[in-house]
């Protein structure tokens, strides 16, 4: 268990006021991101069938929660890790056109997560996906979309300040674009998480690009599943978070793989057997649209905007008793 306790922490809001703020942020943010990116809300599954290949494999070592159903005894169902793949199929299935997209409330269980101030086994995101053209599979499209997401987050700061002026956490005015290779070149002796901390502390808000592939050193900055993001056209939105003196990631997003990048990334990940799965076959045969998409952490956004010390202050999950006891001693109000 790892827990950071901010000095003289003041939660600002009572638990009931915090719950009201959570509802306001969640409802307002999803409306604004939908309008900014031209997204329509869709209902999404909490679990998918294992053999479809639709679940997110994350770093490849996390095990999904799985089960069978009484009426589907021959199928293994998995609680989703994210809806990264499902969304792309949904855009094709429901007839979304060019520059149209969807968002949905994604609820996941990541039972292998290391619990701390920022990480919970319960994950709640706005998962979104949007149709683009093949020619738009480029860095310019990615950066323009990142700026749109950042614009909504900044506007939410103003909205929250209007209702809860004493509680809002103030954000930087612009976001900077940095690649993982630039970080390695700049901080060759630091671990990847230390590089993120250093650059975020310097710049305030960063979109860290090109996550998943090996760097010049032969090491990877971080793992990323090989079959949804194109590793050359993806990244994370990360803020410097003063209350915990750390880098706080609020969104992972990217332009999705085409047939060529899917094959090359699966080969690099020694996972070419996945090419036979239904989802991967759809990409190889161009039966799904070219897309850009991502996930935006709902609890992370609430935590960021309200300046909370622990993600458990803005979501209900399960925590070790020792963590609960220590949080209670320091006015950290775990739900």
Automatic annotation (TrEMBL):
Q: What is its main location?
A: cytoplasm
The record places domain Aminoacyl-transfer RNA synthetases class-II family profile at 23-320
**Keywords in UniProt for this one?**
Amino-acid biosynthesis, Asparagine biosynthesis, ATP-binding, Cytoplasm, Ligase, Nucleotide-binding
Q: Which GO terms describe its molecular function?
A: aspartate-ammonia ligase activity; ATP binding; catalytic activity, acting on a protein; transferase activity
What EC designation does it have?
A: 6.3.1.1
**Gene3D superfamilies found in the cross-reference section:** Bira Bifunctional Protein, Domain 2
PROSITE patterns referenced in this protein's UniProt entry, alphabetically: AA_TRNA_LIGASE_II (PS50862)
Pathway listed for it is: Amino-acid biosynthesis; L-asparagine biosynthesis; L-asparagine from L-aspartate (ammonia route): step 1/1
Where does this protein reside within or beyond the cell? Cytoplasm
Mind telling me which SUPFAM superfamilies this protein's record contains? Class II aaRS and biotin synthetases
Question: So what does this thing catalyse?
Answer: L-aspartate + NH4(+) + ATP = L-asparagine + AMP + diphosphate + H(+)
**Which PANTHER family would you find in this protein's record?**
ASPARTATE--AMMONIA LIGASE
Its family? Belongs to the class-II aminoacyl-tRNA synthetase family. AsnA subfamily.
The molecule here is called Aspartate--ammonia ligase
Its ancestry begins with:
Bacteria, Bacillati, Bacillota, Bacilli, Lactobacillales
